[in-house]
Write a structure and sequence with these properties.
Layout: E1 2-8, H1 10-13, H2 20-31, E2 35-42, H3 46-59, E3 62-66, H4 77-84, E4 89-91, H5 93-105, H6 112-115, E5 119-121, E6 125-127, E7 136-141, E8 144-149, H7 153-171, E9 177-185, H8 190-197, H9 200-204, E10 208-214, E11 217-226, H10 229-247, E12 251-254, H11 259-270, E13 274-278, H12 284-290, E14 299-304, H13 308-315, H14 319-325, H15 330-344, E15 348-354, E16 369-375, E17 380-386, H16 391-411
Helix pairs in contact: 2-7, 3-4, 11-16
């Protein structure tokens, strides 16, 4: 089955929002062996929308559309669907009840314009929206499928997961089985990772491996084919083991795992407590940790000591060390980790201090210089890192490096590269 994804909205064309919907839908379709052959973006123009409907519906087995289903005047997608399929709008009682309930729960008055969102194309099967008011549409015609959903990512994903993907997966059963897995790495650049894996053709034995770098590391996407699910799974397991034997120390998780989720499991399994002292990251490490449900089982406290005075007053960093080595130094970072552990009375303290830019650099301390410290009952150490010159990316990278340093420490993996 070949698919095309259409995103509708002037806000995408002029760069006010990023087209994340298409990327997410494409990933989910590929997981159920549907090939996305193209993606397009169209503004809120009825003529252009209908032309794009015609072009893509003629050329594909599946067209998925997001955007333009809201209640305001610039939401024209529903009208375009009605015109394109030469159908009419009819009231769907189930959708109307959904809309009424949505407003009742929020203690808001239902307006006529919101009631009208229960009007759906007669040719369509409504896709009910548990997260908003606008329903989606599932249309089958000429042995093809046309799916329309809201552009709000939260609402679209709910419809995809509960309705669209299960139907498509059932309809797209194939003789060959394709399995995919993402192996997530951090602390190693893409080129180094590629070099350590050696001969990729020999490693993959006819299957596919893609490198997908981001600010946190490199995702390795494995695609494996087999004549049965068991055969494909055995191949996938074998290839994964080969990769882990070569670069396993850099792999922190798989598929959609976050490093903070991995840390949470390790800390909880060991019955250990953590405290964090942050300077340049301004609370980002603590934020990521507390994004994980159940983090209160291991996370005791976080302290943001941005100024030198705060480092001295709250973490008991020695003033002489700051004057001699500077706030961004191995010595001060070690004392920060030691201090947050001491004031918390817990098992492990980690700390970060650095120069994220674009200002603040000196001839000996460039932008992107970051120190990360770790202290437990046996060791108190710090490590030097050099990131780029983008302030916000540096915050992400520093937080990732701190969590990765903790992960390796918990697993007994040396952090000497």
């Amino acid at each position: 089955m070949k698919a095309h994804i259409i995103s509708i909205g002037d806000e995408i064309l002029i760069g006010q929002i990023i087209n994340s919907n298409s990327a997410w839908i494409g990933e989910k379709l590929s997981e159920i062996n549907i090939e996305v052959v193209s993606i397009s973006v169209v503004g809120d123009d009825e003529k252009q929308i209908k032309q794009e409907f015609q072009r893509t519906f003629d050329a594909n087995d599946l067209v998925i559309v997001t955007g333009g289903l809201g209640p305001t005047h610039d939401d024209v997608t529903r009208k375009c669907v009605v015109d394109f399929f030469k159908t009419e709008l009819v009231l769907d009682e189930d959708v109307l009840n959904d809309v009424k309930k949505f407003f009742e729960v929020r203690n808001r008055s239902l307006t006529k314009i919101n009631e009208d969102q229960a009007l759906v194309p007669k040719i369509a099967t409504p896709i009910r929206n548990s997260r908003g008011t606008a329903p989606g549409f599932w249309i089958e015609k000429d042995n093809k499928i046309f799916v329309v959903m809201p552009g709000v990512p939260f609402e679209m994903k709910g419809m995809m997961e509960s309705f669209v993907l299960p139907r498509l997966e059932e309809m797209n059963s194939e003789e060959k089985i394709i399995l995919r897995k993402n192996l997530l790495t951090t602390g190693i650049p893409e080129s180094y990772l590629y070099e350590k894996l050696g001969n990729i053709d020999e490693l993959m034995d006819g299957n596919k491996l893609a490198f997908l770098p981001n600010q946190f590391g490199v995702k390795m996407r494995l695609n494996v084919e087999g004549r049965s699910k068991e055969e494909a799974q055995n191949k996938l397991d074998e290839i994964e083991q080969r990769i882990r034997s070569l670069v396993g120390r850099y792999i922190y998780g798989k598929d959609d795992e976050q490093l903070e989720e991995v840390i949470a499991k390790l800390m909880i399994d060991r019955g250990m407590k953590l405290a964090v002292a942050e300077s340049c990251t301004g609370g980002l490490i603590c934020s990521r940790i507390t994004n994980v449900s159940g983090s209160s089982q291991f996370f005791e406290r976080g302290v943001i000591t941005y100024s030198n005075a705060a480092k001295v007053e709250l973490l008991h960093v020695q003033e002489d060390a700051i004057q001699k080595y500077g706030a961004v130094s191995l010595e001060v970072c070690r004392q920060m980790a030691e201090g947050v552990k001491a004031i918390s009375g817990i098992d492990i303290g980690i700390a970060v201090t650095g120069i994220l830019g674009p200002s603040g650099a000196t001839p000996t301390k460039p932008v992107g210089l970051v120190y990360i410290g770790l202290c437990d009952d046996k060791i108190c150490t710090a490590k030097e890192f050099h990131f780029g010159d983008n302030r916000l990316l540096n915050k992400d990278r520093a937080s990732q490096a701190a969590l990765e340093m903790l992960r390796r420490h918990l697993l007994g993996i040396p952090y000497d590269d």
